[in-house]
Specification:
Structural class: mainly alpha
CATH topology: Heme Oxygenase, Chain A
Number of domains: 1
CATH architecture: Up-down Bundle
Number of helices: 12
Shape: globular
Oligomer: single chain
Length: 256
């Protein structure tokens, strides 16, 4: 195989993968931020996305445990705090902020956290990501996180579009995204430094590309499942939340 690419060329190819495969290109996302989605489609998206949000700090703990260098572990630990919160200084992490969104949309916290209403494909995609970071090299696990390079753009589209088009969405329930833009920029810069240092061969760089493609596929698959079940007329699997079930049913089932 050819020689290792320079960092600028390496990053250019990584960004090209995002331009082609990141889920800001997905039709469901485009419908969402342009105001075409119904409230039930937005509800389905927020409910199902929590399944993915919930496994992120678990994924980060798995990666951190495999990092040999203490400074690397300290840097990676910030990701866990971002989602789980800190006991004293920062009790409100990203998961609680996401629950503020699902609460605004009518779901009770216990029902969302139970994940009883999540689509099977979303659950399987989330678990596949956990399995990936457990079984692949640390380099590949870190490279898979580089979808964060592209998240500030999708966050900007999502927040501005939802506030503009949906009167049931408020700034208060979107605080998750106001934090994530700066966090994603910080984390992606660290990850780029890490993989540039540890991808010592062209073969290593190719594995990083494949890891990023895999992560993009995970995010795309989740939107495929949501669009198929709640927009394109597909069948909602048994047990998954259905719009014709009132939110009160969803509330009761969480406490049953």
């Amino acid at each position: 195989m050819s020689e290792k690419l320079s960092r600028p060329d390496f990053e250019t190819r990584l960004r090209a993968i995002g331009a082609e495969r990141y889920h800001d290109q997905h039709p469901f996302h485009q419908r969402m931020y342009t105001g075409v989605c119904t409230i039930d489609e937005i509800r389905a998206w927020a409910l199902n996305r929590f399944c993915y949000q919930r496994i992120i700090p678990v994924k980060d703990a798995l990666v951190m445990a495999r990092l040999d260098d203490i400074e690397d572990r300290r840097a990676w630990r910030e990701r866990i705090v971002d989602h789980d919160g800190e006991i004293d200084d920062h009790p409100e992490g990203g998961l609680r902020r996401w629950l503020a969104l699902t609460s605004q949309l009518g779901f009770e916290k216990d029902y969302v956290m139970s994940m009883h209403g999540v689509l099977p494909a979303v659950r399987y995609a989330s678990q596949a990501y956990l399995k990936f970071v457990q079984e692949r090299s640390v380099l590949e696990a870190v490279a898979s996180s580089l979808t964060e390079m592209f998240s500030p753009q999708i966050i900007a589209q999502r927040v501005s579009g939802m506030l503009k088009h949906y009167d049931f969405i408020t700034e208060d329930c979107l605080t998750y995204f106001s934090y994530r833009k700066s966090q994603a920029n910080r984390d992606s810069l660290w990850a780029l430094d890490y993989i540039d240092k540890h991808a010592v061969t062209r073969e290593d760089q190719e594995r990083c590309y494949d890891a990023l493609r895999f992560k993009c596929d995970v995010l795309w698959t989740m939107l495929d499942a949501i669009a198929g079940a709640y927009h394109l007329g597909g069948t909602i699997p048994p047990g998954a939340w259905a719009p014709d079930h009132t939110l009160q049913v969803a509330k009761r089932s969480a406490s049953a």
